[in-house]
Write a structure and sequence with these properties.
CATH class of the largest domain: Alpha Beta
Shape: globular
Helix content: 10-25%
Strand content: 25-35%
Radius of gyration: 24 Å
Number of domains: 2
Structural class: alpha+beta
CATH architecture of the largest domain: 3-Layer(aba) Sandwich
Oligomer: single chain
CATH superfamily of the largest domain: Collagenase (Catalytic Domain)
Length: 396
């Protein structure tokens, strides 16, 4: 096996997620006569924004500020208006901390679900929360509503996360992640490689939920994650969203894509959050141990187990373990090559997220190198190798 190289992953700004887990209700309030649709052509993608009642919606549950809307107008304009001052489309919260308050209409039941959501995120990600103090000018207010909605990113001043009275902790996590700047998995640049949006079964005034917002500010992280907490389901029971609720709104492109949104962030979700808000960028190291399990010296057949140990360090010399009180995700690439009955399949290279448990700085995965020879010819063969991608010594 050849010595493996560390690959570089360059990340710009935003992990793209998606909206709706199994208990998440898509708000499908019909457009009124006062509503206006805005279409922006950005990098050959049409981004639709609904303006209604002086609010701007990038999707059903993503509310844009006026500044963000102006940003899109500026981005879209062939001649940039000199009077318009723009900044990043989505702003992050300093140190990954949101200060918050509860609106007076939030019941104890809903408050418990929100607290559970914040507790989960605090325990599993670099994100944190604190009650708003008198000195905190930027903060979130949770309010009970008939919709689930949130701004995207920090917009400045008070911003409101709206949740229905029966919203679960899972739904609250989803909306909170929007406020942290995380958008839709459906908006990834590469989503068409994995799923097909069934536009024939979606009402025209709901198509903005499938905006490919990745063109605005991101490079996709890892592989498309059809199990993300931010992923739309294949079917919806909402009759004002889908023309036929018995037909899918999203269709997998192959059997390897299983659309099954999770109730809590997946390893891929955690990877993106960590890339956005992990203040430190650890150095990744790994070593491989080969265990020869079987040898047939006569035929040349053998069976080798490869044990890959990935470790994170806080320093370039890799002497100080990088340990966090929350799980730390890493991104690795695996190379799989196989021959079955003398027929060689095309080698496959895929990415996968793994988790280093809280309080640890390393984890182990197992590869293999098996060869079955008959009359000196390879009859069956399987090779599985792992290569680290993120983080790496090149990432800083």
């Amino acid at each position: 096996m050849k010595e493996m190289k560390v690959f570089i992953l360059l990340v710009l700004f935003l992990l793209i997620f998606s909206c709706k887990n199994n208990d998440f209700t898509i708000d499908a309030t019909p457009s009124t006569k006062d509503s206006v649709w805005h279409t922006f052509k950005i990098k050959n993608e049409n981004i639709r924004v609904l303006e209604t009642n002086n609010q701007y919606f990038l999707a059903e549950d993503i509310v844009l500020s006026k500044d963000q809307f102006n940003y899109l107008s500026y981005f879209n304009a062939e001649v940039k208006p000199k009077s318009l001052v723009t900044s990043d489309f989505i702003k992050l919260w300093p140190s990954g901390k949101i200060y918050y308050t509860f609106g007076s209409n939030v019941s104890n039941t809903l408050k418990a679900e929100i607290n559970s959501a914040m507790s989960w995120l605090s325990s599993n990600t670099p994100l944190s929360f604190a009650l708003k103090g008198s000195s905190n000018s930027n903060y979130v207010t949770f309010e009970a509503s008939n919709v689930n909605q949130s701004p995207v990113g920090m917009i400045g001043g008070m911003q409101v996360i709206q949740l229905t009275s029966n919203a679960s902790a899972s739904t609250a996590i989803h909306e909170i992640l929007h406020s942290f700047g995380i958008s839709h998995e459906m908006g990834r640049n590469d989503r068409d490689n994995f799923v097909t949006i069934n536009t024939s079964n979606i009402y025209a005034d709901k198509m903005h939920n499938f905006n490919k917002v990745g063109v605005l500010s991101s490079i996709d992280v890892g592989l498309f994650d059809a199990r993300s907490i931010m992923m739309y389901p294949a079917f919806t029971t909402n009759g004002t969203f889908a023309k036929d609720i018995n037909q899918p709104i999203i269709i997998p492109n192959n059997s390897n894509v299983v659309i099954a949104p999770s109730y809590y962030p997946t390893a891929t979700d955690l990877l993106g959050i960590n890339m956005l808000y992990g203040n430190e960028k650890p150095y990744l190291d790994y070593n491989v141990t080969y265990n020869r399990i079987y040898d047939d010296w006569q035929s040349g057949s053998y069976d080798i187990e490869a044990v890959y140990t990935f470790s994170l360090y806080a320093d370039n010399n890799k002497t100080i373990p990088y340990v966090k009180p929350y799980p730390v995700p890493v991104l690795i690439e695996y190379y799989w090559e196989v021959i079955v009955n003398r027929v060689e399949d095309l080698p496959r290279v895929q990415k996968q997220s793994f988790i280093i448990p809280a309080g640890k700085n390393s984890f182990t995965v197992y590869g293999k190198d098996n060869v079955d020879r008959q009359f000196g010819e390879i009859y069956n063969m399987e090779k599985l190798e792992y290569r680290p991608i993120y983080p790496s010594t090149h990432y800083r």
